[in-house]
Amino acid sequence: MTIYLPIAEISVNLFVVLGMGGAIGLLSGMFGVGGGFLMTPLLIFIGIPPAVAVATVTNQITAASVSGVLAHWRRGNVDFKMGFVLLVGGIVGSVIGAWIFALLKSIGQIDLMISLSYVLFLGTIGILMMIESINTMLKSRKGAPKRKKLHQHYWIHGLPFKMRFRKSKLYISALMPLGIGAMVGILSAIMGVGGGFVMVPAMIYLLGMPTSVVIGTSLFQIIFVTANITFLHAVSTQTVDAVLALLLVASSVIGAQVGTRVGSKLRGEQLRVLLAIMVFAVCLKLAFDMVATPADLYSLAEGG
Amino acid sequence: MGAILHQISRLPRVIAALALCVGLSIGAKGAAAQSSLITDISSHLISVTSDFTGTELLLFGAIELDSEEVGPGTGDVLVTVRGPERKVVVRRKERVAGIWINTESVEFLKVPSFYAIASSRPVEEIASPEMLQRLRIGPERLRFQPDRLGEASEDFEAALIRRKSQERLYSDQDAAVYFLGNKLFRATIDIPANVPVGDYIAEFYLFKDGELLSATSSPLFIKKSGFGRMIYEVAHEHPAIYGMTAILIALFAGWLASAIFRKE
Do A303 and B87 touch (CB under 8 A)? Predict the structure, then answer.
């Protein structure tokens, strides 16, 4: 059974799309990641134009983040003040990102840019995840890990405009979260990701936020950043496919619920290795497509 | 509906232009064979709905032969279906530092988004190259307007036709117009699922011994319909409202999902 996607302007198999949404939802439930960084490349693999894939996944991430943040909010795991500062940076970053996106689309380099960013980020993240999970496995064999210092001082703490974040128990320069928010905002707009996979490590390692509030706060600001990006893409390039987004939302939400239950029964380190392998696989496929000689060197872009 | 009426109102101009073209070509022969072709197509309106998987368009007609003028035997019939013209940018990839990157590009104006041709015999046997060129019959004679000239643009033009053919948007079928007796004829043209929407025109040409005797045309309107149509229109005409709606739906869907699964 095929369904016509009005903005992507192609017919796709309904069950393929639902299956993909469900599978990515399952993974995001199991691993606690947003899944945008796998969803966007998969949509491109099934023939959705990259620009439409990016904009549509952004819309889907808004929905996924809302349902995620509500659970964290009920447990009091959202630092709204920090979220707001990140968000201001994120809005600025996403406006810049959407502008770059529209510019690259007009000169025909957006597909390359999307692939390049993915190869770079998936490659880096895959390697980091591998290292981390191998270390954890080694440590668990060796016994108890060394205790870390509660608080460390870097050059970062010398920056001006200090703000107090009670929930995160931090007194740091507002420039840090603003900068991180802006960087992730640019990535979000270009890659069609929530950016949690960059935001979460940055919050833990760069800002020094307590792990308990990191995910809730990240999700909180992702809602607004992705909503802003959805709007910008809808206005500047008309690439948000509402039908595709709705299919992805419905299937991924169900997948995520199943994933959460499955994930709690599996061991963390093994899950991470599994996820790292998948990240590598997508990365390699994208890298291969960039290097392999295309079947036809010419491509068409219609307009007007 | 407004768009359809608008399209139909434009039709007489198209026919007039064609009639002029035909008149010029047969004027030299003297007596014009008037209305020697009676033609129609199976549908003047194709709706692309959310479950559209392509369709077949039947083009049919009858030749009213004036035996004195045409002589014995049937003529050759050639039919074309042409879609709305668009601007197309053709880009060529080159290997830069190991990666394939779009480098050169040529922009073509007036590129039919769809072009199909069917004929009773290979077109080269039906009419002279000059005639085919003048009537722009066959994908390679469409005469796109490139933004620069020279040999470079020829490669890009060939690529444009090749890519369009691969997407089944350009087709060229020899011996696909079938005669029933020597008066009635029919041809089917595949309309694929990815057909662009807009104003189309189906043209019929009757040739005899390389001379164009008659030509007719029928309008065809391909439009998106139903829910998909509505979404496409809103997205392009009211992008801000569309964007806001997409966000509100996402927010609601997220809340709904969390509400449903919380109870379990």
Answer: yes
Measured at the CA of B45, the angle between CA B41 and CA B46, to 5 degrees, comes to 100
> How big is chain B, counted in residues?
264
With tokens 């001006």, the residue in question is A160
Q: For residue A162, list its beta bridge partners.
A: A173
Question: Are residues A189 and A38 in contact, defined by beta-carbon separation less than 8 angstroms?
Answer: no
Rounded CA gap, B23 and B32, in Å? 8
Interface of B with A in 5-44 (CB under 8 A): none
The rounded distance, in Å, linking the Cα atoms of B206 and A7 is 40
CB contact under 8 A, A291 and B99: yes
Tens of pLDDT along chain B (264 residues) come to: 444 444 444 444 444 444 444 444 443 343 444 547 888 898 889 888 777 778 889 999 988 766 555 455 568 889 999 999 888 888 888 888 888 888 888 888 888 989 999 988 888 888 888 888 888 888 878 777 777 766 677 888 888 889 888 888 898 887 788 888 878 889 999 988 888 888 999 999 988 888 888 889 999 999 877 777 788 888 989 999 999 999 999 999 888 888 887 755
Q: Please say whether the beta carbons of A232 and A98 come within 8 A.
A: yes
Selecting from A7, A108, A257 the residue whose C-beta is nearest the C-beta of B235 gives A7
User: Which residues of chain B have a CB within 8 Å of the CB of A292?
Assistant: 100
pTM for this predicted structure: 0.73
Q: What are phi and psi of B147, to 5 degrees?
A: -80, -10
- Chain B CB contacts of A59 under 8 Å are 246-247, 250
DSSP state at residue A206: I
B254's tokens:
């997220």
Listed residue (A267, A266, A283, A218) closest to A64, CA to CA:
A218
Q: What phi and psi, each to the nearest 5 degrees, are found at residue B42?
A: -65, -25
